Fold these 2 entries.
Entry 1:
Amino acid sequence: MTRIKRGYIARRRRTKMRFFVSGFRGAHSKVTQTIIQQRIRALFSAHRDRGRKKRDFRRLWITRINAAIRWELVSYRYSTLIHNMYQKQLLLNRKILAQIAILNKNCLYMISNAIF
């Protein structure tokens, strides 16, 4: 019986995987079995951290707003500010409030004074 050479499909699949992990170090970018494991791990981490990033940024914005309103002129805290904003139906999201707190504190104080 004649010898049959393997096709190119499996090799093409492995080459695609190698492009995905080309920046990884050591065997993580060279050995096929390790490449498969690292690819799964990388995709899992990317999926998990997309949600994590949103959570982390929200925490950062809340911290910045709280620090800005406690620092000077205003003598109350973040939770009171947000509660009063919702009561007055002044709907600014936390990202915008944090940018205002960093770039223009006087504007943040004007907003807080308009609420109370």
Note: The domain at 8-115 is CATH 1.10.1900.20 (c-terminal domain of poly(a) binding protein).
Entry 2:
Amino acid sequence: MVPFAIGSETAGSITYPAARCGVTALRPTFGAVGRTGVMSLSESLDKLGPLCRSAVDCAIVLDVIRGKDPDDLSSRKIFLDDPFSVDITKLTVGYLEDAEMEVVEVLKSKGVKMVPFKLDYTVDSAQGILNFTMDVDMLAHFDTWQRSGQDDEYEAQDQWPTELRRARVIPATDYVQSQRARGKLVREVRESFTVDAFVGNATDWEKVCVGNLVGMPVMVVPVGFEMIPDPPTEKTRRRSTVTTGIYAPPDHDHIALALTMAYQTVTDHHKQRPPIDDLGPDDVIPNPPKAVIPARILQG
């Protein structure tokens, strides 16, 4: 419905909507885009990025919105080489066990060196670190709101108000330990990047947690559709999108963009559109009734 949109992600709010809708999106390096005017959930995790039809559009939008924001101290002018001039034949790209192999084969056919890859880190629970970080950051942001009792007026009491109240009883020691674990995770992931990028599932929750904690950019790439069974018959009118992720080290968003653009030059998954009516794939469009023009209009 729009040429592009801006998404905000703390823990999956760019990657999951993009994957569900079958669009191309970029969750950029943390700090690449200023967040002034955007409601914050976690100031150390929040990121803004483009959701578009193609990687080319993502590159154009990112180039416009990126850079230092004087009102957002975490923002900075990240290194962003021109993704259109990247020589992908000089790149070594890893692929995880859950990568979509079509993407691997297409990139290989374009001259990219593709190798098996594993992201190594020793932290036990990336999800636990993310939950502690997000909840405490969120409580700090909405502290006055909660202390003044305004959360009692919130309609869905079992959602954010409960989350904030739970965060208030997190011991300071546990929060500090979680941030130490986060620092260790960041170091280990950066050290394990022995490739220029890697391909893997974009919506795997562990990768979503790790990527957001590290501030790692990822392209969400549509790679096709799968049919959804419609019991009790095997025939179905429903399809779900299939996506994969192309991850790059922090500050190397241009690499993920370049690889996605290369993939999309020989595929058309990103050009698919949902139907604008309720017809199934085997339904016939009925002949529309002829318009009847009232006599008073014909008579002037």
Note: The first strand starts at residue 4 and ends at 9.
